[in-house]
Amino acid sequence: MTKPIIIALFNQSGGVAKTTLTQxxxxxxxxxxxxxxxxxxxxxxxxxxxFMGLEPDELSESVHSSIIDxxxxxxxxxxxxxxxxxxxxxxxxxxxxxxxxxxxxEYRLKNALAKVADDYDTILIDCPPSLGLLSIISLTAATHIxxxxxxxxxxxxxTELLLNTVAQIHQNTNPSLxxxxxxxxxxxxxxxxxxxxxxxxxxxxSSIATVFPPIPKSIAFADASERRVPLALFDKNHPAVSILxxxxxxxxxxxxxx
Length: 258
Ligand SMILES: Nc1ncnc2c1ncn2[C@@H]1O[C@H](COP(=O)(O)OP(=O)(O)OP(=O)(O)O)[C@@H](O)[C@H]1O
Ligand SMILES: [Mg+2]
Known about the structure:
Elements: E1 5-9, H1 18-31, E2 37-41, H2 47-51, H3 64-69, E3 84-86, H4 95-98, H5 108-114, E4 122-126, H6 133-141, E5 144-150, H7 153-157, H8 159-172, E6 178-185, H9 192-205, H10 219-226, H11 231-234, H12 239-252
Parallel strand pairs: 1-4, 1-5, 2-3, 2-4, 5-6
Helix pairs in contact: 1-12, 5-6
Bound molecules: adenosine-5'-triphosphate (ATP) and magnesium ion.
The site of magnesium ion has 5 residues, from helix 1.
């Protein structure tokens, strides 16, 4: 059995489209023949759980039970838009404290995912906007990290901190972690500063990993998530849909380092 590709969508900055991309890239991967996709919501804000149409307050179980009590992953009983989902709720917020002195706490998600590895081709982990334990647990479980970056100078400056964090993970808990790439997000091509930032992202980060084409800024993303659907199901002709499809095709070709 080949191991699944496990991609953590991570950036410690908030609101850069981690969750939006987790849902949309997962959807396009699941559309591809024979791709079995699992999404894991590791953010106590539970945006992914909500975007997928579930009510975090009404869940009987969340990823929290796997992280804290090492129970099997509570995979939602039905496919949602062709994807499996491990939902979360606000209880996950307490896990950093609950795990304060737990042994091997960084490996909790890695161990839980190992038990379902044969059932999926790609697993996408939606990380919280922090450098805390939940992000460390997510990056320790991942084979790859995919980094959305907002096309603004201030967001781009945060990448140094991000690269340091990844280097720490590499050294300590996950030596085989690889970059899947960087995705400039919410790009407004009419703004000169944003165009300059995209160029700077390409110049400075393409030696580390692929810099994907920017995702345009569009209110349609918020409209789609309000309707609890991926963009392609809200407006299949939206220009961002073909960009998302292309990024999903590149992700499909990633390989796991043994
Ligand atoms: N390309 C885009 N253009 C315009 N708005 C977008 C785009 N992508 C995402 N958004 C919107 O920006 C907001 C933040 O997106 P999202 O929740 O995916 O970011 P995030 O990085 O997961 O945030 P957090 O750090 O809080 O988890 C949402 O309202 C979303 O609909
Ligand atoms: Mg999010």
